[in-house]
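FIELD: query
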Amino acid sequence: MDWGAEDDDSRQWGLGPFVAASLADDQGQGLLDAFGAGIMLGTRRPGSTASFNIGVGWFVDTEVTRLRDGLANGIETTIMDTNDLTREVDEEGLMILFSGSW
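FIELD: result
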């Protein structure tokens, strides 16, 4: 949606959906392990390529590692296999996205 105006001193506004995807985690793995979607509001001056955009949406991360229930950092345990100490869970939440161009 474009709420553009004819006056050169005014700003053009746009509103629309966005989709976001993780390309890699901090170790360079995990293609598309996190993704999100939402709505974005953008503005720019007519005839300019400079813009500012803000988006609000929801994300899901499918590979979050957590300690198993009943375990905490610093607590001694008799579990010897490190794979038994953690579990992978999905985590979701609110995301706020800013972007701009000059």
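FIELD: remark
The longest strand covers residues 51-67.
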